[in-house]
Design a protein that fits this description.
GO terms for molecular function: hexosyltransferase activity. The chain is of the alpha/beta class and 410 residues long. The chain is built from 14 helices and 16 strands. The longest helix has 16 residues.
Length: 410
């Protein structure tokens, strides 16, 4: 590798980009998926991409070539420890992060550092990059309210912990020359709880052409959920709503994903008498996920804390109507009465009623919902996302490519 950094100042010239992430595949979550998809897209466009992330298993620091979404990239895996309150999360050692960041930055000499989280890896990279005059971009996928469920901060300790987490986020993101997050709602949220301004809403993006819509009438009623099976997703509301739908509709529930809530949800399904109609698929290959997206009748997302929801965009790209909680950023994707419906969080009767509406809707009306999902998701094509980040990396002015300002509340 040359000691001189790439000349990133000329439009069209390839860049050397270093992406820092506290979670990266094989981790399964939205932030990891976005970082992987962004990195692969940049490699495909001819850029040199390096990833800094915790090791997926115990072991020393290691640098190797890994393939993600069909693209080779250099991944710097840091020695990591398991965060035992969480079912699988590993973290880079905080007391070594600045030393490791300095070592990697001096070896790679990137044109730009793009960190995906302020917690450990992003903090170290941002501090050391600023010292070296390297351009820094930060993207936030984190909500302290979600992360604290895996800490001892409960009860009276919870609010001070949330405030401390936001203060830490503000310090690290304050080092970046531009800050992004997936939606306008998420940008407003970040600005509200930190002293940041001018946060760019930039969609996580999706390879829309990789999904297969099926607009034909369904022969069974299948409601699909994809995501982590954790408390923040409120999957119990989906099970309770499905149990209240008229049995003659024979509603089947498909849950793709895994997490610490799975045993409790399996027990709940049994208590509700619907175990025979609920399939917990666990972690599944991409081929199975896409097959179920094509097969399902409707996608459900009961979460209250989505900064965007890649899974919802995947469902829309598969031509599905969506039912989701009227919370956080979901109304940016789910336009009530147009491509699906929003229910008030916790209102199980309303959730069940909306499921019934979809399953009993005349086919021509259902087609309108499906076609609107396909139309809305076009604004989230991955190429628009890549164009915008390339411009940010070069220090150019950008127009935020978020096509969600016409979100409709119920």
């Amino acid at each position: 590798m040359s000691d001189a950094p790439y000349d990133g100042g000329s439009p069209g010239r390839p860049l050397r980009i270093l992406i820092g992430a506290d979670t990266f595949p094989p981790d399964v979550n939205g932030a990891a998926k976005f970082a992987e998809r962004l990195a692969a897209g940049l490699v495909e466009r001819g850029h040199e991409v390096h990833i800094v992330a915790p090791g997926a298993e115990a072991g020393p620091n290691v640098t190797r070539t890994e393939e993600h979404e069909g693209q080779p990239m250099t991944v710097h895996r840091l020695r990591s420890w398991r965060w035992y309150p969480h079912p699988w999360l590993r973290y880079a050692l905080p007391w070594r992060i600045e030393q490791n960041a300095a070592r990697i930055l001096d070896a790679v000499k990137p044109d730009v550092v793009h960190f995906q989280s302020h917690i450990v890896v992003g903090r170290g990279l941002a501090r050391e990059a600023v010292k070296r005059g390297i351009r820094v971009i930060g993207t936030n996928h984190f909500m302290p309210e979600n992360g604290l469920q895996f800490t001892p901060f409960i009860g009276a300790l919870r609010e001070p912990a949330v405030r401390a987490a936001w203060k830490a986020a503000g310090r690290t993101f304050g080092l970046a020359e531009a800050v992004t997050t997936p939606t306008r709602k998420a940008a407003d949220y970040l600005e509200k709880y930190t002293e940041l301004t001018n946060v760019h809403p930039i969609s996580c993006g999706l390879h829309i052409d990789q999904y297969t819509p099926n607009l034909a009438p369904r022969t069974e009623n299948v409601v699909l959920f994809i995501g982590r099976v954790e408390a923040e997703k409120h999957i119990e509301e989906l099970l309770r709503a499905a149990a209240r739908v008229d049995q003659s509709l024979d509603v089947k529930v498909e849950i793709i994903g895994d997490g610490e809530q799975r045993p409790a949800l399996e027990k709940l399904a049994a208590q509700l008498g619907i175990s025979h109609r609920v399939h917990f698929a666990g972690h599944a290959p991409e081929s199975y996920l896409k097959q179920q997206l094509t097969r399902a009748s409707v996608f459900a997302i009961p979460s209250r804390a989505e900064l965007q929801s890649i899974a919802t965009m995947e469902a829309m790209a598969s031509g599905l109507p969506v039912i989701g909680a009227n919370a956080m950023a979901l109304p940016h994707l789910i336009h009530h009465g147009e491509n699906g419906f929003l229910y008030e969080p916790g209102n199980i009767d309303e959730f069940a009623s909306l499921l019934t509406t979809v399953f009993t809707m005349p086919h021509d009306q259902l087609l309108e919902l499906k076609r609107e999902s396909l139309r809305i998701v076009q604004g989230h094509d991955i190429n628009r996302t890549l164009d915008t980040f390339e411009a940010l990396y070069r220090g150019e002015e950008v127009v935020d490519p978020v096509d969600d300002l016409d979100a409709v509340a119920p």
